[in-house]
Amino acid sequence: MDMFEKKSGLITGLGEIGHFDLEKLPAIEVKNEVVWVNGNVEMPFKFEEDKSSKMGVFLTPEPNEQEPIFHVKVMDNHFRSALLGKVIFRDKEGNLYRDVDIKGMGPISPPSSDDPLLMVESIEAGSARNIAKGKTPWGFLDWGFAETDRDMSELFIKKGLRTHRALAIIRLDEIIAKNGEKISVSKARKLGYIKYTTEPVIEVRAFGTKARIADAENQFLLEDAKRMVAKELGKDSNNFSNKDYIQWFAQTLGKQVAIIHNAGFIHGYLTDHNITLDCRIVDLDSVKKIKTDKWLDDKQVKKDLLWAMKSLNWLGKHQNISNDYYKLISDFFDGYFSNLTAKINMEDTRSLKDSLVNEVF
What we know:
alpha+beta; Transferase(Phosphotransferase), domain 1; 2 domains; six-stranded antiparallel sheet; three-stranded antiparallel sheet
């Protein structure tokens, strides 16, 4: 069964929902408890704190016909999160969302694997205890990382950032192991599937489109995102060209990075996996404070800019446009510096831009 049933071709308010066949994997509800609910979103579904939720699911290799099966949709490059469905709603700030996903519901195979599902048993017993501090075993999401992602999302939305929004955090009291067996989290710790310090949770999140720049090779996902952007801008999607889209994207991305830096933070991982095709900067559990007052000299600030430029360059290569990539980078920096609140002289601006461009090309 699917979490949401919607008619194909439905107008979302951002664009038209495209119809594309994503791979589906089976998941079943496990024992869980909702530990946090976002009160700033007008959700079309209900969460209640201290109660279980049907969204507290975990991937299973052996679907049991006696239990309801949820078919979650997965994409390459998304290794522990899946799309539950598409439903239109907004938050109190007026931001619209469409794609609802869950993160932390088990390990999906990387693109290099022939197996679409890597079960928890693939972790050797005892090995999880030896994982470096701060790391979480494959497929799981730890409460601490979900909490950081939630807090940063709430902070940056209020500052005008285009990002996802956390809807709820659900504690998992069970996981699925070998042959579809449900086992308690305490037993999973004893077997070495997860660390004793790991508190596995599901984070339910809302996006415009869940698809990232890394998914741009999929022309259906890319066209869907372009239609959403055109609708958002009040443009005719049939006349919204690749050139229009990528120019908007470059300038918008620059502005989004400036919003993060203006607030005194760096994202820390602005790769093509963490920027959606409707230009939302997501996965904020890596966000950290900028360490120096002279933040333009901060290596992490420069790393943010460099990775954003590389991601933009990668997106441009999938647009089949004749634009010079240097023009895209110029549009990116126009968006960045025009929205930066710090006082920077023109010489420093040119120096920073030139040094980073040389690293990209």
